[in-house]
Design a protein that fits this description.
- The chain is α/β, with parallel strands linked by helices and about 375 residues long.
- It has two domains: about 10-230, Alanine racemase (TIM Barrel), CATH 3.20.20; about 245-340, Lyase, Ornithine Decarboxylase, Chain A, domain 1 (Beta Barrel).
- The chain has helices spanning about 10-25, 35-40, 45-55, 65-70, 85-95, 105-120, 145-155, 170-195, 195-200, 210-215, 345-350, 355-365, and strands spanning about 5-10, 30-35, 60, 80, 100, 120-125, 160-165, 200-205, 220-225, 245-250, 250-255, 260, 265-270, 275-280, 295-300, 300-305, 315, 330-335, 340, 365-370.
- Strand 6, helix 7 and strand 7 form a beta-alpha-beta unit.
- Helix 1 packs across helix 3 (about 45-55) and helix 5 packs across helix 6 (about 105-120).
- The structure holds pyridoxal-5'-phosphate (PLP).
- Pyridoxal-5'-phosphate binds near residues 82, 208, 209 and 224.
């Protein structure tokens, strides 16, 4: 079989480097390595062995398949789900011993019902709205919130072992204020849930940005995802971007000055221009919003994406790159030579967070591995 015309390449050594760097930064705070969305598109099958070799003993998942896959590969540590789940998922996840995220009373009742069905209590982390995300946390600012925590504490199948929250913003002050509110409200939560939970609740709210920017947000566990893959806006020790998006030049043509280029004629050539077709498009997760805005690397130098591009092709202007030939490698994300298309570059071009792009690439494109072999 020939390789696809577009692919992602995962550098497992970069992930190992990032895991070590993050753990050094965290000091004594335990790490929950988040591998949701198939390890942010990087592939749980590639990432888990790196985590296990590093001795990471807690992972965060969303889908059951990630939890079952981790158990199949011999992971014996804790598996924490980082979103509220459906009842069928909860019942099915019990076989992998997943700790559930209790997202309010109605969701906790589903966990309770699942516990009855499987015949044992389920360990849960109770989400509170201390940070103001207002997504799935119980709000202690309202009288009903306190009653809800009482009610959750009384559910026989629900065993609260943790209290958690999630930050809405990657902003230092916002995180610091949210962490302080979480410190106060998490203590209160333990009381409201009932006595047997009071002394033992594990407190956690930090993500990559929070944990690496505001140490006071770390509490008893840091749930870190993006930084492990080298994608964070936190100012931290050098992390390495683990993912590259690649393709190759399929066609090269020259068009006279004044030619309109691509769908809707959004680009007009100012001079005779040499344009190259790269066979990857929005159906491959290279979102259409990047058309006319992103840059790629070819021959180690930047070239602009000029068209409002197509389902399976983008056009780049290589007029200033006379050496480029059909078949040459094109890097749409990551390094080539001494330059790199960074996640920040892609965010500027797309107006979206980079994870919105690369999690889709992980689903849509073939993956190749780099590193990981003993040298
Ligand atoms: C994804 C997620 C994390 C990890 O966030 P990063 O910014 O990728 O480190 C932590 N907690 C929850 C609830 C999440 O959904």
């Amino acid at each position: 079989m020939i390789p696809g015309p577009g692919w992602i390449e995962i550098d497992v050594d970069a992930i190992a480097h990032n895991v070590a760097t993050v753990r050094r930064e965290l000091g004594t705070t335990p790490l929950c390595a988040v591998v949701k969305a198939d390890a942010y598109g990087h592939g749980v099958d590639l990432v888990l062995p790196v985590l296990m070799a590093a001795g990471v003993d807690t992972i965060g998942v969303t889908a059951n398949e990630e939890a079952h896959g981790a158990r199949r590969r011999g992971f014996r540590g804790r598996i924490l789900r980082v979103r509220p789940a459906l009842r069928e998922e909860i019942e099915d996840a019990a076989a992998a011993d997943v700790e559930e995220w209790a997202g309010g009373l109605a969701n906790a009742r589903e966990i309770d019902a699942a516990a009855r069905a499987i015949g044992r209590r389920i360990r849960v982390h109770v989400s509170i709205n201390a940070t103001g995300l207002s997504r799935d946390g119980v709000d202690l600012g309202a009288a009903s919130g306190r009653e809800e925590l009482n009610a959750i504490g009384a559910l026989p199948g629900v065993h609260p072992i943790g209290v958690c929250a999630h930050f809405p913003c990657e902003d230092e002050r916002d995180v610091a204020e949210g962490a302080e509110a979480f410190r106060i409200q998490s203590a209160h939560t333990a009381e409201l849930l009932g006595t047997d939970a009071t002394d033992a609740l594990e407190r956690h709210c930090a993500t990559s940005f929070a944990a690496l920017t505001v140490p006071a947000s770390r509490f008893d566990l840091a749930r870190v995802g993006a930084a492990l893959y080298g994608d964070t806006s936190a100012r931290t020790g050098p992390l390495k971007q683990a993912l590259r998006l690649l393709s190759r030049v399929a066609a090269i043509n020259v068009y006279p000055a004044g030619s309109t280029v691509g769908y809707d004629r959004t680009h007009t050539t100012a001079r005779a221009s040499r344009l190259a077709v790269v066979p990857i498009g929005y159906a491959d997760g290279f979102h259409r919003v990047l058309g006319g805005r992103a840059e790629v690397l070819v021959g180690g130098r930047r070239a602009p994406v000029v068209d409002r591009h197509a389902m399976n092709t983008v056009l780049i202007d290589i007029t200033d790159h006379p050496a480029v030939r059909v078949g040459d490698e094109v890097v749409l994300a990551g390094a080539q030579g001494s330059d790199a298309i960074t996640m920040r570059d892609l965010e500027h071009a797309s107006g979206q967070i980079a994870a919105d792009l690369y999690t889709a690439w992980g689903r849509l494109l073939p993956r190749r591995v780099r590193g990981g072999e003993p040298s």
